[in-house]
């Protein structure tokens, strides 16, 4: 019998060491703790600014989500948000998404079940003003099979929307506004226009394969849905075309007047 199998605590320590080694190899900002199923909603009318690292493998405390549970005790992925940011003012957010596949060798059975039970990593942003959202793939700048699909919905009710997507992003963009939609030169080179009707701009970012496209509802990969109200514009860039933070700037989430519902414990 090996030492690991006879000593569970030693095996746990070894797995944690391997997990930390994997984390050290990723493009992550220093000092930002990993999170999952996190809602941040300021109680006061302030801008929401910060850096978040989403780890889809972190397991939930199921008793905190009775309304979201189905008959089998699992939360339907369509009802769950891995990260949800809401404010009546502007949002300035950098979000890093961790891969899942390299983790499987060091995940517990419960963590593997949590990761496998959700089809995608879901992120939601709602603001009454402008939204500047920069999404980062923590493991790669190219198309990445090691992470689950990322599904983002961002609504700037009375402002403009500026988004930065990782170069590994491959999927449709549905952008709604009465103003203009502008793509950087690098993004435009990877865009396939699909439709433009009454302020709805539907396109595909990445390697578009017509034989695999059956419409938005049937798509199972990355997707981004954005809304900019009151005639404002939508600007789209790659994340490498802008500043990528390397430190923690989540100052707002440490203040007492910000209410954050942590459905998972945050870890280093």
Report on the structure:
The protein is mainly beta. It has one domain (3-262). The protein has four helices and 16 strands. Strands 12-13-10-14-8-6-4-2-16 form a nine-stranded mixed beta sheet, with no helix packed on it. It is globular, with a radius of gyration of 19 Å. The two termini are 32 Å apart.
Concise structural overview:
This protein has 268 residues and is mainly β. It is built from four helices and 16 strands.
Topology:
Elements: H1 3-6, H2 8-24, E1 34-35, E2 38-42, E3 48-54, E4 83-87, E5 91-97, H3 109-116, E6 121-127, E7 131-137, E8 150-156, E9 161-165, E10 171-176, E11 181-183, H4 185-188, E12 191-197, E13 200-205, E14 223-228, E15 234-238, E16 258-262
Parallel strand pairs: 1-3, 2-4, 3-5, 4-6, 5-7, 6-8, 7-9, 8-14, 9-15, 10-14, 11-15
Antiparallel strand pairs: 2-16, 10-13, 12-13
Rg measurement, Å: 19 Å
Number of strands: 16
Strand order of the largest sheet: 12-13-10-14-8-6-4-2-16
Task: Kindly give the count of domains.
Answer: 1
Output the structural class: mainly beta
Q: Quickly count the helices.
A: 4
What overall form do the CA principal axes indicate? Answer: globular
